[in-house]
Amino acid sequence: MRLSGVDHRSGIERGVQMPQIDAPGVPRPVALVSVLLLLGLWWAIAAWLGDPRHAPGPDLVLPRLWEGVVTGTMLPDLGATLGRVVIAFAIAMGIGTALGLLLGVMPALDRWLDPWLTIALNIPALVTIVLCYLWIGLNETAAIAAVAINKIPMVAVMLREGARARDPALGDLARLHQMPALARLRHILLPQLAPHLSAAARAGIALIWKIVLVVEFLGRSNGIGFRIHLDFQMFDIAGVLAHALAFVAIMLAVEWLLLAPLARRANRWRQP
Amino acid sequence: MISLDLRSKAHGRTQVLGPMRIEVAPGEVLGISGPSGIGKSTLLRIVAGLDTRFDGRLDAPAERAMVFQSPTLLPWRSVLDNITIPTQCRPEAARAMLARVGLAGHEAAWPGQLSLGQARRVALARAFVGTPRMLLMDEPFSSLDADRISDLLTLTQDLIAQHRPAVILASHSAAELDALATRRAHLSGRPAHLDYLETRLRAGS
User: Fold this and answer.
1) A57-270 falls under which CATH superfamily?
2) What is the ipTM of this complex?
3) pLDDT, tens digit, for every residue of B117-128?
4) Confidence check: pLDDT of A13 > 80
5) Distance from the B204 Cα atom to the nearest Cα atom in chain A, whole angstroms
6) CA pair distance B132, B166, nearest whole angstrom
7) Do residues B111 and B46 share a domain?
8) Which residues in chain A have their CB less than 8 angstroms from residue B45's CB?
9) Which of B144, B97, B149 is nearest to B123 (CA)?
10) CA distances (Å), B143 to each of A84, B55, B149, in order?
11) Is B185 inside a domain boundary?
12) Distance to chain B for A175, nearest Cα, Å
């Protein structure tokens, strides 16, 4: 039953509960200075320790990074890892969103599957990876599947919240006017889910690339994770740091150049 | 013409609405009063075709519109898009209707930039733009100041007189019912039943 006369907000945002999303947006000067300070601190500690083999400073690591990128020796591995991240991300977002929406609109199904989801959320990534390699084999399918499976429960949980927070009145409006399915999706459903999709995407991309590295470390013969495995066996700490930094840089670029602008675009109407 | 012959409506095992008959002719406004939570919204959703899980028979025009308790706008679409997207009307028709409700010049605004009174005007424009043959209004002016309401009531009266849909208005505001209703009924009891009150003709009808 509805209550009347209690809601004195402009009434429009009623029913559409938005999760709080921390939006870093474009890197500001403070962020740049802060990164430079971190580099300086790293350099100072390395210089103070004076043990370049165990604690290489930026003066040893950054040239390795530069060389790997400029001469192109790192590029095939960066490409391989990025490819796996993109494919696993797409699969996890697709399946996770579908599952989350299903659970959000079907409370009966949700009551049954919610415990499964809780279990899935708590299976360590390493276990999924090892099982995938054992069951599917040491191949690309197993690698991608392992990453996607790790990520799907989280996307499903976040999108389930999104589906639950939909404003039922907007659904009534669409049905009343018999809006075509595509128009409903585009103008009613997706905008309501946008904050949840964006939060799931940003949390997801960060999680996925970390798991991809573990997957590569354990069972692939290319990619940044595989290179770090080699560096590990050679006790090449500067190599580990250089490879890791290369991929961190790519992921920051994805966040700042792709995800943050998309989130801003989706939130355009929320201006004061 | 709206014609509902309801035998029963239940939420789960609880019967909410008992047997009742409703007939509303074009241009007529049936005002339904009753306490909060009695089932006015449920009844309106049945007539609107939004709730088909009831026992009975409904005969209602397909050209239908509804003014909801909250303005129910899409906050992520402009005021103009809020008219054209749900109703699939032409932008010129939407512009004309926005001007009619006093919102010319607000086409590009986001709903979040409007006052509640303006948002309710957009909802009215959206309801009338497709010249509906049936209009359902569920507490259409709740949470507004009295002077805002009288403006909106006059506007609604004019729009109804011009387009002549069959209207059901659910409200517990005597002012709204007095101003708009050509016939009155009261919903009460559990399961709720509908009692028609003495026919009172509005001045000019």
Assistant:
1) MetI-like (1.10.3720.10)
2) 0.87
3) 899 999 999 999
4) no
5) 31
6) 9
7) no
8) 172
9) B97
10) 53, 34, 9
11) yes
12) 7
